[in-house]
TrEMBL record:
Residues annotated as domain TauD/TfdA-like: 130-320
Stated name of the protein: L-asparagine oxygenase
Similarity section: Belongs to the clavaminate synthase family.
UniProt: Fe cation binding residues: 146, 148
Region (Disordered): 196-216
NCBIfam families membership: GntD_guanitoxin, viomycin_VioC
InterPro entries named among the record's database cross-references: Alpha-KG_dependent_hydroxylase, AlphaKG_dependent_hydroxylases, Arginine_beta-hydroxylase, Clavaminate_syn-like, TauD-like_sf, TauD/TfdA-like
GO BP of this protein: antibiotic biosynthetic process
Organism: Phytohabitans suffuscus
Keyword NAD: no
Cofactor(s) it depends on: Fe(2+)
């Protein structure tokens, strides 16, 4: 794991900038703030900038942990009951700004029109009634390990989490591809486009939100839902591995993969890969003020189950998707400067 702990002096150095930006904008979703973030990020401590650049370019690990950001849990107030309740008037706004700036050092942040009303920064918290859903707002069920948005050609290079609360020490589980013994696996079979990857449940209309009030945006979003439904009805065959055969990248989400029709070789190769991932899975219990960046090409992640209380004290994280190739999704975005994929 690639790790850095912020010092008290570094916290003191960034605090005025974070407070100023939090006072200048109404929400972390403000398009001007998101557009300015890569430039504003240059004011972060030099040691942190160098650390994030080494993670981005050198790939020393699939997991990057920045710890020690100041978080006053009392000032945060209660964990929201739903992600819809968290966008405006956020008491975590300074921390959200820091998270945005760090993420912007690795690439361009983006959101999905089909997730959390098209927001860039998501809330990860338990929602009453979702206890057994296979989405991030569940609790009593394990969140199965996966590549984030594995089904989509525009999936991010990184998925990032910032912890605001985790009183029960609930573990995020991660497997780094660098820990796997590729010599024991049928890599050639896994490079073949023989595997059907289905869209995950978090992109379904019932888990996304209501009308935006903008007919043009709603039409685009309905187009996205129709495309996702078409992929459910007629799954596209894709490889599980790509890149360098000696040190490959991965894209898989076993819970949402349709295995019917796979060849015997494909099935065996896939099962052996999953078995080895299970063996090398590690748990990371994020603490308030921890930011973890997971290389979405080189790791899979999930979360262990827990019992939510729904009393305002539950686990509460923020999440970002980050891409190093925003132009690769241009056909899916209504304008070059728009960071939402439709």
């Amino acid at each position: 794991m690639h790790t850095l702990a912020l010092t008290p002096q570094e916290n003191a150095d960034v605090a005025p900038m974070l407070a100023e930006l939090a006072a200048a904008y109404d929400t972390i979703e403000n398009p001007e703030l998101i557009r300015r973030a890569p430039v504003l990020a240059r004011s972060l401590p030099a040691r942190l900038l160098a650390f994030l650049e080494e993670y981005r370019i050198g790939e020393p690990s699939a997991i990057c942990l920045v710890s020690g950001l100041d978080v006053d849990e009392q000032a945060l107030g209660p964990t929201p009951e739903h992600w819809r309740d968290s966008q405006y008037g956020s008491r975590a706004f300074p921390q959200e700004v820091f998270f945005l700036l760090c993420g912007s050092c690795l690439g361009d942040v983006f959101g999905w029109a089909t997730q959390q009303d098209g927001r860039i920064m998501h809330d990860v918290l338990p929602i009453k009634g979702h206890e057994h859903y296979e989405i991030g707002s569940n609790s009593l069920q394990h969140l199965s390990w996966h590549t984030e948005d594995a089904f989509h050609p525009c999936r991010g290079d990184y998925v990032a989490l910032m912890c605001l609360k985790n009183p029960d020490g609930v573990e995020t589980v991660i497997c780094d591809a660098g820990d796997l013994d590729w010599s024991t696996l049928d890599v050639e079979a896994l490079f073949e486009p023989e595997f059907t990857q289905m869209p995950d449940n978090s992109h379904r209309p019932e888990n996304t939100g209501q009308s935006t009030g903008d007919p043009a945006v709603d039409r685009l979003r309905q187009r996205s839902f129709a495309l996702i439904q078409s992929w459910n009805d007629d799954p596209v065959k894709r490889p599980v591995l790509f890149g360098d055969r000696q040190d490959p990248y991965m894209a898989l989400d076993p819970y949402h993969m349709k295995t019917e029709g796979w060849s015997d070789r494909s099935s065996k190769a896939f099962q052996k890969l999953c078995d080895q991932i299970e063996t090398h899975m590690r748990g990371v219990a994020l603490r308030p003020g921890d930011l973890v960046f997971v290389d979405n090409f080189r790791a899979v992640h999930g979360r262990k189950s827990f019992r939510a209380r729904y009393d305002g004290t539950d686990r509460w994280l923020k999440r970002l998707n980050i891409t190093r190739n925003i132009r690769g999704s241009r056909a899916w975005r209504p304008a070059a400067g728009n960071h939402i994929i439709y």
